Amino acid sequence: MVMAAREHIAQVDGGRVQVLAEVEALARERREVEEDLRHAITAARVARQSWAAIGGALGVTGQAARARYGTIHRARSVGGEAAGTRRSAGQEADAS
Fold first, then answer.
1. What is the pLDDT of residues 14-23, one digit of tens each?
2. Helix orientation angle between 51-58 and 15-46, rounded to the nearest 10 degrees
3. Cβ distance 42 to 72 under 8 Å?
């Protein structure tokens, strides 16, 4: 996709409109992918996947994944805990 944008830049004959259309299309795709990713991460957490495992799938650390997506997961939870991730008394929180 970056190559497509570069090709548009090279086409100076009306290039600004084409480049902006490409930027707009890529931004729309990114929003759609981010929404799908948020749903997939929420499903992974409900399935008791650790932040370390999710981070590995994303190519980042578990801490980075939790920092970026943990608030989304918490916002979709009930009473501060997502369905399927409740812990029994004395069990440590998933810090990974």
1. 567 788 899 9
2. 150
3. yes
